[in-house]
């Protein structure tokens, strides 16, 4: 009965890969438009809230993209903590139980 854990792991991996691709595409779009252009953070924060905060934050640090912007550098680590809390709560609550 490892199926719930496998599904959770696949979901977390998929959402983090999506967040990785989102940051990469935002970086490419910003490079094409020029240094003065703005890219929105709404999709990035939504992906982070849904579980991809760690992937987005790590990609931002690795690509050195938006690291000088205060809002993503504060919100994404908070979302990482929230994501970890939710996963631990799911596991401890008995919703995901190995039978």
Describe this structure in words.
- The chain is mainly alpha-helical and 99 residues long.
- It has one domain.
- It is 78% helix and 0% strand.
- It contains three helices and no strands.
- The protein has helices spanning 3-33, 42-63, 70-93.
- Helix 1 (3-33) packs across helix 2 and helix 2 (42-63) crosses helix 3 (70-93).
Please give the structural blueprint.
Elements: H1 3-33, H2 42-63, H3 70-93
Query: Per DSSP, what share of the residues sits in E-state strands of 2 or more residues?
Result: under 5%
* Helix proportion range: over 70%
Query: Which word captures the global form?
Result: elongated
Low-confidence stretches: none
Largest sheet, in brief, is: none
Structural key phrases:
single chain; 99 residues; mainly alpha; elongated
Structure in a nutshell:
The chain is mostly helical and 99 residues long.
């Amino acid at each position: 009965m490892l199926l719930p854990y496998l599904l959770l792991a696949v979901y977390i991996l998929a959402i983090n890969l999506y967040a990785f691709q989102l940051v990469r595409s935002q970086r490419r779009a910003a490079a094409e438009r020029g240094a003065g252009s703005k890219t929105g953070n709404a999709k990035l924060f939504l992906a982070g809230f849904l579980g991809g905060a760690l992937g987005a934050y790590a990609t931002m640090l690795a690509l050195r993209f938006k690291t000088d912007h205060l809002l993503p550098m504060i919100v994404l680590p908070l979302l990482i903590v929230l994501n970890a809390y939710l996963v631990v709560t799911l596991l401890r609550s008995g919703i995901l139980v190995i039978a």
